[in-house]
User: Fold this.
Amino acid sequence: MTDETFSVWAPHRERVRLAIGSDRYEMTRDDRGWWHAEVRGAADTDFAFVLDGEGIDYAFLLDDEETPLPDPRSRWQPAGVHGPSRRYDHGAFAWTDTGWTGRPLAGGVIYELHVGTFTEQGTFDAAIERLDHLVELGVDFVEVQPVNAFDGTAGWGYDGVAWGAVHDPYGGPTAFKRFVDACHGRGMGVLLDVVYNHLGPSGAYLDRFGPYFAGSTIWGPTLNLDGPDSAEVRRYVIDNALDWLRHYHLDGLRLDAVHALTDRGATHLLEELARETDALSAGLRRPLHLIAESDLNDPKLVTSRDAGGFGLEAQWCDDLHHALHVALTGETDGYYADFGQPGALLTTLRGAYFHAGTWSSFRRRTHGRPIDPSRHSGHRFLIYLQNHDQIGNRAQGDRMTATISTKRMLCGAAIMLCSPYTPMLFMGEEWAASSPWQFFASFEDEELAAAVRNGRRKEFAEHGWGESEVPDPMDPATVKRSTLRWSELDEPGHRAVYDTYRQLIALRRAHPELADPRLDEFQVEGRDSYLVLSRGQRRLVVNLGTEEAKVLLDLQPGEPLLASAAAEVTGTHVTVPAESFVLF
Assistant:
């Protein structure tokens, strides 16, 4: 006989039934608002919708409603977010990474990718075939954009609604495990982007079961983290995070837009999550990393709990991106405005935050708080020239090299990869990919699709873009345009960019001072259009101007380790051609 136990939290419902095929089973409520049912059968095949022994398809009926709803804590949604949930046995996968001991974040290089557009096939298995490219490049961590189930087949993943179920068009849960296992086999850790600050607009049935929601943002409904019955909602988030780390052998999570998490409790959800993640890390005997996306410019997030912080390991640092972007492109619109001030890049490279208790013209208020370079390690702040947001939130999703030359972008790459911060590359950046990264979705509901399409056009019309200039996010051609063209690696110009990225990363490993995260040991000086980064006994000289720069170094330079153009060395003077760099 086979016994299957099903549970669901629905504290304010009078009746909950389990639906398996056409069969209905009454569930029993406990004193915490959880409903349970145990179903017995002669064998797995007695259950309806069992496919090749993979699992049982099931759903729930609330009160006297007759429309089945998927499990809020589903592990698998093979029929989409509106269909029944399917049981999934995590113990059935044969892992081969038993010797994997993880990777420290300090000194590492992260590579962000979107499974659906990383390859033409858009699956985990197809992505595995490209992992050797990342190994050759020198990547330490692969950061995967959200893979939890969302409505439709194609999308960025930030409109997910089934947080524990792997998006089936990518290959489903077993394929994701194969991907993680393959990364570990090649010596790379895997970070997963997760979204707890909101749910997508289609398929978010949580509020039908209980008081999960507390409000909304421009992105969708937000969670009840500090109101009545919030304990189980908080548990929902923490259990989901721990499940990804434990059952999928992940090395860390990137937490989307944590500034949108509203929690007025004495112990913030992020601190509670960090505490439990550290406990799991000790049990698994390998490091687990929590990396926040936050626009708060508050070092408390990455300050240890012993020192009164939340205890997250790191955060995305948009100020570093904005300062580099303005220095390289000259764009000063919108939130880039303040970063056009003289010395903005120097200030930000020295202290991670440009807005550190200073006036933000974009926000029209004082913003941020300074870090302490003697206490805060640079590895806790991610630096990037491009990422999915900064490219995809442009009207046409154009990459940096659609605006500037590749030689100028390589100057930015040298700064990023020789800084004390944790560098992150966005897929295709390493060869100056020509494919844009445009916003796309595939909602089947026509009204919702039209609302997303029109909202996108209206948003950019306010910034002067014409309707015809904004790609239709519902058009499959938008997805195709955003898919990497791997054949470009065979073209000399793209290959030259790739070779420079690969050499810069290799030098980080060969010369540890280039990856030294100590901010109080880091010096950066500049004048007009050039920068000099001091990394121990090494110097990186970058000329972002349009004329050659003659720079006096305080140490006798030796033979260049790497130069993007021929540099002339005379005594302690180095003459660097326009828009180039030299690393000694």
About this structure: The mean pLDDT is 94. The CA atoms of residues 59 and 70 lie 5 Å apart. The first strand starts at residue 2 and ends at 9. The longest helix spans residues 492-510.
